[in-house]
TrEMBL record:
<dbReference type="InterPro" id="IPR001898">
    <property type="entry name" value="SLC13A/DASS"/>
</dbReference>
<comment type="similarity">
    <text>Belongs to the SLC13A/DASS transporter (TC 2.A.47) family. DIT1 subfamily.</text>
</comment>
<feature type="transmembrane region" description="Helical">
    <location>
        <begin position="106"/>
        <end position="128"/>
    </location>
</feature>
<feature type="transmembrane region" description="Helical">
    <location>
        <begin position="369"/>
        <end position="394"/>
    </location>
</feature>
<dbReference type="InterPro" id="IPR030676">
    <property type="entry name" value="CitT-rel"/>
</dbReference>
<keyword id="KW-1133">Transmembrane helix</keyword>
<dbReference type="Pfam" id="PF00939">
    <property type="entry name" value="Na_sulph_symp"/>
</dbReference>
<keyword id="KW-1001">Plastid inner membrane</keyword>
<keyword id="KW-0934">Plastid</keyword>
<feature type="transmembrane region" description="Helical">
    <location>
        <begin position="327"/>
        <end position="349"/>
    </location>
</feature>
<feature type="transmembrane region" description="Helical">
    <location>
        <begin position="297"/>
        <end position="315"/>
    </location>
</feature>
<feature type="transmembrane region" description="Helical">
    <location>
        <begin position="406"/>
        <end position="427"/>
    </location>
</feature>
<feature type="transmembrane region" description="Helical">
    <location>
        <begin position="12"/>
        <end position="34"/>
    </location>
</feature>
<feature type="transmembrane region" description="Helical">
    <location>
        <begin position="170"/>
        <end position="191"/>
    </location>
</feature>
<keyword id="KW-0472">Membrane</keyword>
<feature type="transmembrane region" description="Helical">
    <location>
        <begin position="211"/>
        <end position="237"/>
    </location>
</feature>
<feature type="transmembrane region" description="Helical">
    <location>
        <begin position="447"/>
        <end position="470"/>
    </location>
</feature>
Length: 476
């Protein structure tokens, strides 16, 4: 039965990579089959885990599992996870930023300040993404819902279309796409796969990568990526500003010869209210180690406050389909990821990987594991599926090899988003990338070529200065 469960889990991952079915539908099928076959694991009073089909609801009193009822309880366990609620609430905070107009205002203000040159506009796009990253936990929602309309209108304002002065728009589009991946990496709430990696690090390595710790580890390498990636993109694309930019009324843009954006109207009461809530939210996240208030509770509090103050209406919550969809599939993924470990799959893969890497020192083995995790993204079409499939097993392998647990957790955490730059050739590593590519400014081969160059830059930064920074932090 355990072998059947492993087989089904493999098929779920293969289905994620090869079919057009929605992730939530595939998760529902997997949970249903695993429940009816009682292929989950249950916890006994003796402190052991056993497959549900081995539980005896009559004669085995110490087993908490009770037949199909117990199997279904196990299937639903992921939906009570605080990690899942953190992401769910953060989605609604992102919705509040879009509904109130605060997210677009942040992006425009940054562009207005730094937009004196094309390279300056590139940096402004990066900064706008980073400002939105902690509050909008979806690459697609942040990139496609907030940034992409602003970037596209800016390109059109500068007289750039897919057929005229294309390089200007291509540069801005590429900046937005790569900034999306960097912001997904440096914040725990920056991307949906991050909580999965967070949960596996705590389960397998005993490492707590909560919001403040995650951000602290990303400060130096993230800042270097922010500093060098726009410049690299500028060198690779070599954009040239059109002589006569044309005006565009879309999204409150007005063209000037400097490429700046006209000021927007004064902030509304809803924007001021949301700003205050987000400042409190971010402060509590950053001081969790002192207050003891968990990140999930802070996000839940913020969601209640935006509803109580009228920033969002309950109808807005009901209409936020991406939040409900993510809540469903992420809860299922957390269940599957947990039982990957409980039924021995992560241990089995870890043992085999450890046997191959055993001759290496713990630090060398850690670097090889990080490179393997990064490069293996070539075989996946989703950063979420990649994290679910390999983060746990590779962490298990590192534990067998005696690798520094905090260093392993950091590398896998940060590379989970950054490795998306390797798969522009398939354009499915993040939903936002599909939106950006569809604008027609960048050819397919250029996505792949430029993505490879940026991926190499990320590796140099995170395996160079990043390692030195984590050494200073005492992570290994």
């Amino acid at each position: 039965m355990v072998a059947n469960a492993h087989c089904l889990r493999h098929r779920v991952i293969v289905a994620l990579l090869t079919t057009d079915f929605e992730i939530s539908f595939l998760i529902a099928i997997a949970l249903m089959i695993l429940t009816f076959t009682r292929s989950f694991a249950c916890h006994t009073a003796a402190g052991t885990w056993i497959p549900c089909d081995q539980c005896n609801p009559v004669g085995l009193e110490e087993a908490k599992c009770a037949g199909f009822e117990g199997a279904f309880d196990a299937a639903l366990a992921g939906y009570s996870s605080d990690v899942n609620w953190l992401v769910f609430c953060a989605f609604h905070l992102g919705q509040a930023m879009q509904v109130s107009g605060l997210g677009r205002r942040v992006a425009f203000r940054l562009v207005n300040v730094f937009g004196g040159s094309l390279l300056g506009l590139g940096y402004a796009v990066f900064l706008a993404e980073l400002c939105l990253g902690p509050f909008i936990p979806s690459n697609a929602a942040r990139g496609g819902g907030v940034m992409q309309p602003m970037v596209l209108s800016l390109a059109q304002t500068l007289n750039s279309t897919p057929t005229r002065h294309t390089r200007v728009g291509a540069f801005l589009i590429l900046c937005a796409a790569h900034a999306n991946l960097i912001s997904a990496s440096v914040f725990l709430t920056g991307s949906a796969p991050n909580p999965i990696v967070h949960a596996k690090a705590e389960e397998l390595l005993g490492v707590e990568m909560e919001f403040a710790i995650w951000l602290k580890g990303a400060l130096l390498p993230g800042a270097l990526s922010l500093l060098f990636t726009p410049a690299l993109l500028y060198l690779l694309v070599r954009p040239k500003r059109a002589a006569n930019p044309r005006p565009s009324s879309s999204y409150d843009l007005s063209a000037t010869n400097t490429g700046q954006i006209a000021p927007m109207d004064a902030m509304s009461p809803r924007e001021w209210t949301l700003t205050a809530i987000l400042v409190v939210c971010l402060t509590l996240w950053m001081t969790q180690v002192y207050t003891g208030v968990t990140a999930s509770l802070v996000a839940f509090m913020a969601m209640v406050l935006v509803l109580a103050t009228g920033v969002l209406e309950w109808e807005d919550v009901l209409r936020n389909a991406k939040a409900w969809d993510s809540f469903f599939w992420l809860g299922g993924f957390l269940t599957l990821a947990q039982h990957f470990t409980l039924l021995g799959l992560s241990g089995w893969f870890g043992e085999h990987a450890a046997s191959v890497l055993k001759p290496l020192s713990p630090l060398a083995a850690t670097l090889v594991i990080a490179l393997l995790y990064f490069v293996s993204m070539f075989g996946f079409s989703s950063i979420t599926a990649h994290a679910v499939a390999l983060a746990g097993p590779l962490m298990a392998a590192s534990r067998s090899l005696g690798c520094p647990p905090m260093l392993v957790a950091a590398l896998i955490s940060y590379l989970s988003g950054l490795c998306g730059s390797l798969v522009f050739v398939s354009l499915h590593s993040a939903g936002s990338l599909v939106v950006y590519f569809a604008q027609g400014y960048v050819k397919h081969r250029d996505w792949f070529r430029i993505g490879g160059c940026v991926a190499l830059l990320h590796l140099v930064i995170f395996l160079g200065p990043g390692l030195a920074w984590w050494r200073i932090l005492g992570w290994f």
